[in-house]
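Need C-alpha cells for this chain, all 389 residues.
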Amino acid sequence: MRPIRPVTAILCSAALALTAAACGPGDGETDAKPTVAASLPTSLDGVKIPDGLKDKLKEHGIDLEKWKGGEWKNWKKEDWLREAGDYINPIIEDLWDPDRMRDAAKTPQPPAVDPDAGKDQGVTDPTPAPVAAKAATAPYHRSVPASGKVFFDGPEGSMVCSATVVKDPAHPGKSNMVWTAGHCVHAGKSGGWYRNIAFVPSYNNKGKSAAALKGAPREEVAPYGVWWSDWAQTSDQWIATGGPTGGAGAPYDFAVLHVTPEKGGGKSLEETVGTALPVEFNAAAAPKIAKMTATGYPAAAPFDGQKTFQCADKPGRLSLNATDPTMYRIGCTMTGGSSGGGWVAAGSDGKPALVSNTSIGPAKAGWLAGPRLGPEAKGVFDAVSGKFK
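Here are the C-alpha cells for all 389 residues:
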C-alpha cells in the first residue's frame, strides 16, 4: 500500500497521495513514548530565537535574516533540518497567494505501493467496498467549519494536505491548534521539516472550480485568512523511520500544529472560524463503531484539490505490523490531498470528536486508513498545548 503522501510538481505539488500512517495504539496496546516536538518562531520580527538553536542553524549555513528572502529554497541534504527541535517556519507575508494555493494541487499521483503489505500481520479485516466520496455542501464554513487545507514547500515544489481545527484544553474556546498527518510536516527518515507550512480554514469556501478561482481575491480563497504554523510536532517514530510509502513509521504518522494569523489580529483560530473539534484519545475499537466520516481536499485525479469531499463508512481494521497499533480503515475514493483530513465519530461522551486522520491507501483509490489515536498521539497533543499555556 502506499501512503497518502504529498504529491509534488516543479512549481508546486498537489495533495498527499496516500502516504504514511498515523496512529496510536491499536486493538492491542503498545508502549508508545511521548514524542518530541518541533519548534520556533512565526516571524523573525520581535521573536527571540534560542542561542542554542541559532548555533545549530549556523552549523547548517542558515542565516535567518536571509530566510524570508529566498534562502528557504535551499534543500541541500546536509542543510535540511530534521531534528525535532530544529523546526523553523518564519512568516513570509503573501507567499501563499491565491494562484500559488490553487496551483499547489496540480500534481501527478505518487508511485503505488503493494496494497497487501502487512496483510497477514496483526488484525486485518477484509478490504472494504469502495465508498464514493461526496462533495461537501458549500459554503464550507457551515457544513465543515473545522476543516481546511495545509500548504507547504518541499524539495520538489509546493504540496498540500488537509487538516482540522481542534480544541485546546489550555485555551477553552480560543484554540490555535490544528490536527494533520506527520508526513504533511516532516519527510521522515530521509529528509527533514517541510517549510512555509500554513493552514487555510474553509479554503475556497464557496466551492468554486479551479477555473473560476483564477484571479479570485485572497479573501475569497482564504475567507478566514492564512495561519502560519509557529510550532509543529510529530512522532519520534515518524522522524526516525517514516518514508514516501509510510515505512516503519507509518503507524505514527500524525502531527499537531500551533498556528498564528499571517496578518496578525486578536482573535484565536477557533474564535475566527467559530468552532473546533475535541480529540478523542480513547475511541472504541473498530468493531464497536457504527460510522466514521472522513473529510478532505483530494487533489489527485479525478479531483483537483479545490473542493471538500467526505466519505462515511463503518470502519474495519488494518494492521501493517503485528507489533504496531492497528489502524482504522474505511471504504473511500478520495485521493492524494486528503491526507491529514480529520475522521469524526462519536466520542466517549457520544458527541462528535476527531478520532483519526487520513493517512494511507491503495494505488487505485478505494479505501483509506488512519490511526487509532492513543498515548503516543496524546503525548504530541499535550506537548503542543502545554507549550502555549
